UniProtKB/TrEMBL annotation:
EC class name: oxidoreductase
Family: Belongs to the peroxidase family.
Source domain of life: Eukaryota
Xref: Pfam families: peroxidase
GO process annotations (BP): response to oxidative stress
Calcium found in the keyword field: yes
Record's protein name: peroxidase
Disulfide bonds: 61-94
EC number: 1.11.1.7
Residues covered by the Plant heme peroxidase family profile domain: 50-189
């Protein structure tokens, strides 16, 4: 599927750089998919690349513990996309009703190294955040191929990550009808 650098595509698609669309907003995301199906895909792909930054650092229990206890408001249920052994460890570290500020490694394999293991963890259902695991566990998602690709080649991941960060850093401020900067990132102004 990916016979050339993801970046050559990114660089040649100026509409991606407008940054008009915020995937965090489900409603806008659906509208975008209807109007620009390719664009939504490419934004997700870029998200998949830069999320590799979660190869180190920590997250507080409060941002992911909904996956461990009462998932989807079902009492006692756990997110089925979490490896059961990993889930048991997390439940002990982040008990239901416990201290939400406890810090957990985003990459349980090599928590302080910038490497390809973030993607290997996703293949083993050991992504900490729901947004991380979704890159691999969403049926039919085009990010699955990227996870597999970067899990098998650290050099490939590094090259793509570097260029993505440069491209994101070069995004221009939005003016007039080009888009908007949200006052509240959860909704359009
Ligand atoms: C899909 C988009 C992303 C989401 C939803 C996301 C979400 C999060 C969350 C919830 C945390 C834990 C924060 C806390 O507990 O207070 C976190 C930590 C972190 N994120 Fe992201 N993130 C995203 C993209 C990125 C990107 C693009 C980068 C950098 C290029 C990044 C780098 C980090 C780092 C380094 C940490 C650990 C911080 C620390 O240990 O102090 N994230 N992220």
């Amino acid at each position: 599927m990916f016979h050339f650098s993801l970046f050559s595509i990114f660089c040649y698609r100026p509409e991606v750089q407008h940054g008009k669309y915020n995937l965090e907003d489900e409603t806008v995301g659906q509208q975008t998919e209807l109007e620009h199906p390719e664009m939504l895909s490419w934004e997700i792909i870029i998200c998949c690349i830069v999320s590799g930054a979660h190869t180190f650092g920590r997250a507080r229990c409060l941002v992911f513990r909904h996956r461990l206890h009462n998932f989807n408001n079902v009492p006692g249920s756990t997110d089925p996309t979490i490896d059961p052994t990993f889930g048991d460890v997390l439940k002990q570290l982040c008990p239901d009703g416990g201290n939400g500020d406890v810090l957990i490694d985003l990459d349980p394999t090599t928590p302080d190294d910038f490497d390809r293991n973030y993607y290997a963890n996703l293949q083993n259902n050991r992504g900490l955040l729901q947004t991380d695991q979704a890159l691999f566990s969403t049926a039919g998602a085009n990010t699955v191929a990227i996870v597999n690709r970067f899990a098998s080649s650290q050099t490939d991941f590094f090259n793509n990550f570097v260029q993505s960060m440069i491209n994101l850093g070069n995004l221009s401020p939005l003016t007039r009808s080009n888009g908007e900067i949200r006052r509240n990132c959860r909704s359009i102004n």
